[in-house]
Amino acid sequence: MNRGFTLIEVLLYVVITTIVLVSVSAFLSLLMAARAKDQAINEIEGQGLAAMQTIEQDTRNALSINSPATGTNASMLSLAVAAGASDPTIFGVQNGVLGIKEGVAATTTLTNSRVMVSNFTVQNLSSANGTGTVRIRLTLSSASPSSRYEFTYSKTFTGSATVRQ
Questions:
Q1: Is residue 51 in a domain?
Q2: 40 in a domain, yes or no?
Q3: Considering the domain boundaries, does residue 97 fall inside one?
Q4: What is the per-residue pLDDT across 107-117, written as a single tens digit (0 to 9) for each?
C-alpha cells in the first residue's frame, strides 16, 4: 500500500501555509507601523511638554519681560532674571531647534534632532500696571526624512505664564 500525499493534498497544505504566513506578515507590518507612529508621537509630546514647562517656569521666576513689547508678538522671548550670569534669558528658534541662551553662555538646545520646531510665537499680554504675562505657542513636527504616515506627526503646544512679583 502506497502511503504518501496526493497532489491535491500538497497544494492544499501549500495554500494554507501561504495564507497563514501572509496573515502573520501583514499583522507584523501593521504592528511595526503602529510602533513607529507611537514613537513619533511620544517624542513630540515629551519634548513639547518639557520645553513648555521650562519656558513657563523661567517666565514665572523672571523679574520682567524684555521682549516682545507689551501687546506685540515675536518669535523669541527675552526675560530679565535675578541671577546676573543668566541675565538676560532668551528663548528662540534657530535652524528648527528651540534653544535657551542664559546671559553670555552658549545656547543650550531644548529640542533634539528628532523633532523640528516649525513655529514659535510669543505674545506679550502684559497689563499696563506692569504684570508680565506671555502666551507661548510652539509647533513641533517629526524630523524624519521619510514622508510615510507612521513617521509624520505634528502638534501645537500653547501655554501662558505670568511673572511672579
A1: yes
A2: yes
A3: yes
A4: 888 888 888 89
Best CA proximity match to 120, nearest among 63, 37, 54, 41: 54
Q: Compute the distance between CA of residue 161 and CA of residue 59 in angstroms, rounded to an integer.
A: 6
pLDDT digits (tens, 9 = 90+) for 53-81: 999 999 998 888 888 888 889 999 999 88
Contacts 24+ apart (CB under 8 A), 97-103: 98/51, 98/138, 100/54, 100/58
Q: Is residue 80 in a domain?
A: yes
| The total number of structural domains that make up the chain | 1
Long-range contact list for 107-113, CB < 8 A, 24+ apart? 110/47, 110/50, 110/51, 110/54, 111/47, 111/51, 111/140, 112/47, 113/143
Whole-model pTM?
Answer: 0.77
Q: List the grid coordinates of 134.
A: 506671555
Domain extent for 113: 7-162
Which segments within the chain are labelled E, that is strand? Answer: 64-67, 73-74, 76-80, 89-94, 97-102, 108-109, 115-124, 133-142, 154-162
